[in-house]
Structures are given as C-alpha cells and as structure tokens.
C-alpha cells in the first residue's frame, strides 16, 4: 500500500465521519419514524470524537490494532446511548483480530468486517432479522468471508460487501423490530428502514472508499 496501515485506517475513519455528517439529517429522519430522531447526531458525534483522538497518535509508529482500540474508547466516551457500547465493542473486537497483523490485505479487511459484526452481535445479544444494524453487518461479514475465500480483488470484495449490506438494510423495511426502542412500536415499525442498518451501509461505503482509493485500476 502507498501508506502504512495505521494511516490507512485513520483515513478510513475520516471518510466515515464525512459520510455520516453528509447523511446526518437523513439518519435522524429515519430514526424519527421508529426511535428518538437522534441517530444521525449520535453517529456524527461518535466519529468526530474518534477522529479527534486519532489525530493525537503518531501514526508512523502505531499498529492497526491500536487505531481500533483508540477508536473504541473515543466512540464510547462520546456516545452514551446504546450505539456507543455496540460500536466500541465492535472496534475492540477488530483490534483483537488485528493484533498480530501490521498490514491490511483484502483478507485482513475481511477480518475487520467479521470482527465488527461479531462484536455488535455479542454486545447487543441480537441476530439477523431483529431489524437492527446487524441486518446490514451480518450479510456484509458473510460477503467479506466469501470474497476472501475465493481471493477476490479488493474492489470485488468491497462491491460484494456493500451490495450485501444494502440488501440487508433494505430488507429491514419489511421487518417488525425485535430489539431497541423501535421494538416498542411492534407492527408500527413495519415499512421503515432501521436507521442503524442505514448508517452501517454508509460506514461500509466509506470503508470501501478508503481501501480502494489506490486500487481502482489494479487488483491488490
């Protein structure tokens, strides 16, 4: 890669923050239909805090796992709502999964997605079909694992990941919420996309951009 792994991850978190900020009102509107109408604000605050914390690191002497550990702490400190612990746990899982690694090959990138999905699932005690962010993250993780197993190029893998996440998020419209604040609505949650799954797609899109920026014309 043209830059070290820690700088690539820092760039990734910057792109996530920009993308979330751009969709902040949309995410809060989605949340307004079935929640507290603050999901966009919450996510924006969380990733702004992450980038503030990462700006303090010496990225030339920082491991990928340390970037995710710093992100986990910063996100949790900034976001007290349920989303905070979920993504903090997700980033800690990613840190643990990357511990022995100093590179970010396509296989390593797939490991990150899988670790994030596992972290969210373990912390939230949820599953696919509950109408939560897992409806995007679990399909994304499955697509990542499948792409890595067939040694897909970086671009191919991320296209598969994003397509799976988008399909998963869109599917939440036909689900009745089983977890979170939306579960209080019962059948009234039908017809609305889960805001957590919508923000997961935005995050994954920014991650794809970060990992494919210099891989557009050549396989990794």
Features:
single chain; 220 residues; mainly alpha; Serine Threonine Protein Phosphatase 5, Tetratricopeptide repeat; 9 helices; 0% strand; disordered C terminus; Dihydroxyacetone kinase subunit DhaL; DhaL_dom_sf; kinase
Chart the SSEs and their pairings.
Layout: H1 5-22, H2 24-34, H3 39-54, H4 64-78, H5 83-98, H6 106-124, H7 134-149, H8 154-171, H9 195-212
Helix pairs in contact: 1-3, 1-4, 1-9, 2-3, 2-9, 3-4, 4-5, 5-6, 6-7, 7-8, 7-9, 8-9
Protein name: Dihydroxyacetone kinase subunit DhaL
Domain DhaL: 7-209
Keywords: Kinase, Transferase
Percent of sequence in beta strands: under 5%
Name of the CATH class = Mainly Alpha
**Helical element count?**
9
Outline = globular
> What is the H/E string?
HHHHHHHHH
The overall pLDDT, averaged over residues, is 89
The span between the termini is: 9 Å
Tally of domains: 1
Q: What about the largest sheet?
A: none
CATH-assigned fold name: Serine Threonine Protein Phosphatase 5, Tetratricopeptide repeat
DSSP strand tally: 0
Fraction of helical residues: 55-70%
- CATH architecture field: Alpha Horseshoe
CATH homologous superfamily (4th level) name: DhaL domain
Protein name: Dihydroxyacetone kinase subunit DhaL
Pfam family, one: Dak2
InterPro entries: DhaK_L_YcgS (IPR012737), DhaL_dom (IPR004007), DhaL_dom_sf (IPR036117), Dihydroxyacetone_Kinase (IPR050861)
GO molecular function: kinase activity
